[in-house]
Putative repeat protein (TIGR03943 family) (Amycolatopsis sulphurea), 334 residues
Amino acid sequence: MRRETQNVLLILLGGALVKIAINGDYLRYVKPAQQPWIIAGGVVMLLLGIVAIVADLLRARSAAKAAAQAGPDVVAAGHQPPEAADGQGCETSDAQARVTAGHHLADSAGAGPIDGHAEESGQRQGIEEYPAGFRQNKDPSLADGPPPWGEPDSAAGHPVGDGHGHHHPARSAWLLVVPVLAVFLVAPPALGADSVTRTEARVPQSAATTAESAFPPLPAEAVVPMAMNEVVSRAGWDSGGTLNGRTIAISGFVVHNGGQTLLARLVISCCAADASPVTVHLKGGEADRFPSDTWLRVTGQIVPGTANEANSYTPDFVPATVERITAPKDPYEY
């Protein structure tokens, strides 16, 4: 993967983390206590991506500046002023001409280099200085015509690379950006009825630790709002019967499973990956008309003794009122 792709992915992923942490979508995946860590992780990714991009730009600018400064020096070194073409300059030109003629004679006779230039000639033979992507033209009849390196390799049926033997990576690496953009545009929903039907409902582990301890009495109110987690725990483990005859209010989403209509919530310990459902069985048929994943607030009473291991601690609930509500911002219980 190219550095440009890595930097873009860092910025997009960091931005996505910061976005879901600020607008509250992170509650679909983790507990509220994780928000500071999500923001910190997103900010670090953003900073790393920005620093990497700035460093690459500065490096490219320095390289371009160095190349621009070295360019005039290279041109000046390859072209001598006309006024210097006298005295020693003429002698140097004559010497170069004699060496060149000697090389041509040696090549024609099939012999090696002459005039004591064996070492220099060997070095030149060991390093063939031809432009990248070209092959040497060995036709002596073209000595005064095309350049000695001949024609491009592509004309001879050889592919031309980038001159350094590198192969450019496939652009499919940019497909990694798709799931990150999906978080920006459409955040995946929270777990719902499908997760409940695929996972056996069970009493929360915290309830087992208080199985032999007395549950505190409920407040002296006509209708007591309660969390689904607490209702299932008391129905399955409270031997004191603190729910008997009491009207409570609970909220959750509808699940149709095996001919029964359940009201469910998902309890998480850390994140959505460890979610476990807690459910109550809605009696009377008043909630049967609502489709799965519809959020309801119901008031009514628990039927004593109906939550046991055989039915995965799902007590029967007789509703007095059934009200449709919007899904809460935080859909899980803890």
Q: What stands out?
A: Residues 9 and 176 are 8 Å apart (CA to CA). The longest strand covers residues 248-257.
